[in-house]
Amino acid sequence: MRDADGTLYLHAAGYWFDARDTNGPWSVLARPSKTLSDAAKQSSAKSAADPMLPASGKPAAQAPALLVATHPAELIVTDGPAQLKPVDGTGLLTITNTDHAVFVNPTTNQYYVLVSGRWFQAATTNGPWTYVPGNQLPADFAKISPNDPKANVLVSVPGTPQAREAAIAASIPQTASVSRQKASTKVSYDGAPRFEPIADTSLRYAVNTATPVIEVDSTHFYAVVNGVWFVSISPMGGWTVATEVPPVIYTIPISAPLHYVTYVHIYSVTPDTVVVGYTPGYLGVVVDAQGTVVYGTGYVYPAYVGAYYYGYPQTYGYGASFALGAAEGFAFGFAAGAIWGCASPYWGPYWGGGYWGGGWNNVNINQANFYGRWGQGTVTHTAGWNAWTGTQWRGTAGSGYNPATGAHFQGARGAAFNPYSGNYAAGRQGSFANPTTGREGAGRGGIVGNQYNGNYAAGRQVAGYNARTGRAGAAEFGVSGNAQTGQYQTASKGIVTNQSRGNAVAWNNGDVYAGHDGNVYRRSDGSWQQHTSNGWQTAQPDQRTGSDLDQQRDARTTGEQRFNQHAGGFGGGDGFGGQHSGGFGGGDGFGGQHSGGFGGGNGFSGAHFGGGGFHGGRR
Predict the structure, then answer these.
(1) What distance in Å separates the CA atoms of residue 143 and residue 123, rounded to the nearest whole number?
(2) Can you tell me the distance from the alpha carbon of 350 to that of 358, in angstroms, rounded to the nearest whole number?
(3) What DSSP character marks residue 76?
């Protein structure tokens, strides 16, 4: 803010600063006036500002220094004097007390820093810094041990396995099947839509909105929201899911602010759905000429300033860095956001309304699927692949509603498989309710295992209730074992109740039976026993009840024999392995973490299955 005398005021990180020029110097204002505080409240009421506070929400004990830059810049901070440490496997040194990757080559006394996937070098930490292509780095960079704390920089060293894997990951799309009827969007502008040309194309784009809106001609407007293309005859709407995108949109050059939309595609169309997808370029991650991933295009795009501020992707200034690991896959994050709560880049999928959006300070491009924002009623399936862990996944969900009866249902299924570790998993669940009949129920089941060592665990659960009759029931069954040795353990239990009459029958591990005469029996040492107020007593059920109990026992015995004959099918991985690449674990839930971890009978018995259900595949 600026007062009548021309003094500028800035509120950041919990402190007030003032200066006579935007370039500074900025000084801490110890006692802001009431007029200034009231003006700040009025301004914030109209448009919230980023408070830039630490994660605690409280100002730091000491006000930060304000450094002004009018061109792309990166702030590298050390916690005290720089502390150097040898890098494992090399002759390099690294600064350990900074969030950035800073190295020293003692042979040439040159400093190297990695910023947004790009290397820069200087003779001192004071600069000047100059860009260095990755293929011109000293050979020692490629020798950094994968176990070194700075090993993540291998993603940015051309020719390393980590760099190759990251480049592969940057080319794999996240996909989803989107309902053409249910998906919709609205676009808000700062005033009337204002369009400007996109250089080197016949297109124009709206500059005064946070949503990328592109004008192809006077009656065809396209917008991208959370990875889905929409089309309208007017920039004001109404917007419908697009079934095709004009090829000219994919000619938008890298120098244009909306270049990132060229990474969103439509793959197929049906009367009800559209299969869409995006590669990590939509999130700002691209592959450079050396074949390594970098963050941002390197271009500076002018922001829109009006009643609202709409910025565009910035390459530098947020401490963007990369990570690659067996568990997390290929990811990138923003150091600045983690330290000061600064706004993360908010264009496209990051836009969250309010001040600058924020929140998405660490994004795993193999897991962060923005199609999940549309809800199950809109997106019917998602799929993906983690190039580093090898985990493939796919998931499907659906729901329905009958307005005449009020009945509704929902269901979902998914699967995951990792060919490197051999881990596989699959599951499904569903529920229904009908207020007219009073009936409702739910069920779920799943399997986890390893095709290489043969360990597996599987189970299912069902439950139901009728509010009109008072009848309710629940049951579960589980099995765990090893397909190679043939050893296994089973567990089953359940209960059926009638709340109207106060009756209940329960069983545990299959040795309890309900007779037609209303009594509870079990088979022990070749004879039947009846449960009474004095416990289990030898019983002689009548012919009808005895015949029914024998039939129940024979059915269970036959079922167990058939299961034994086919138990090997659970361990081979064919049912839920390679052919069913899918999304039961969200992409990484079963990748490289659980090999050999499903045996021993614990997956679905005891506390795991009996106490809480299908937990065998949890992380």
Answers:
(1) 22
(2) 8
(3) -
* Of the candidates 255, 267, 199, the residue with the CA atom closest to the CA atom of residue 227: 267
Do 191 and 208 meet the contact criterion of CB atoms below 8 Å apart? yes
Please give the DSSP secondary-structure letter assigned to residue 63: P
H or E element at residue 253:
none
Using alpha carbons, select from 322, 318, 303 the residue that is nearest to residue 73.
Answer: 318
Lookup: tokens for 273: 């759905």
Question: What tokens were used for 98?
Answer: 């900074």
pTM confidence score: 0.55
CA of residue 26 relative to chain centroid, distance:
40
pLDDT of 268 over the 70 cut = yes
Q: What is the dihedral of CA 94, 127, 130, 136, to 10 degrees?
A: -30
Do the Cβ atoms of 445 and 468 come closer than 8 Å? no
* Tokens read off for 210: 């946070």
Question: What pLDDT is stored for residue 99 in this prediction?
Answer: 77
Joined tokens for residue 617 = 């595949």
Q: What pairing do the DSSP bridges indicate for beta strands 240-241 and 512-514? A: unpaired
In 370-526, the DSSP E strands lie at 379-385, 392-401, 408-417, 423-434, 439-450, 455-466, 471-482, 488-498, 503-508, 512-514, 520-524
Residue in 45, 39, 30, 47 with CA at minimum distance from that of residue 2: 39
What is the rounded radius of gyration, in angstroms, for the C-alpha atoms of the chain?
A: 31
Show me where the domains of the chain are located: 1-68, 84-149, 171-364, 389-510, 518-555
Instruction: Read off the pLDDT of residues 367-409 as tens digits, 9 standing for 90 and up.
Output: 344 555 555 455 555 555 554 455 556 665 555 555 556 676 6
Got the DSSP string for 296-340? S-S---PPEESSSEE----SSSS-EEEEEETTTEEEEEEHHHHHH
Structure tokens at 347: 């264009």
Alpha-carbon distance of 179 to 182, in angstroms, equals 5
Helices (H), 325-452: 335-340
Burial of 330 (0-12, 13-18, 19+ CB in 10 A): buried
Q: What is the largest CA-CA distance in the chain?
A: 105
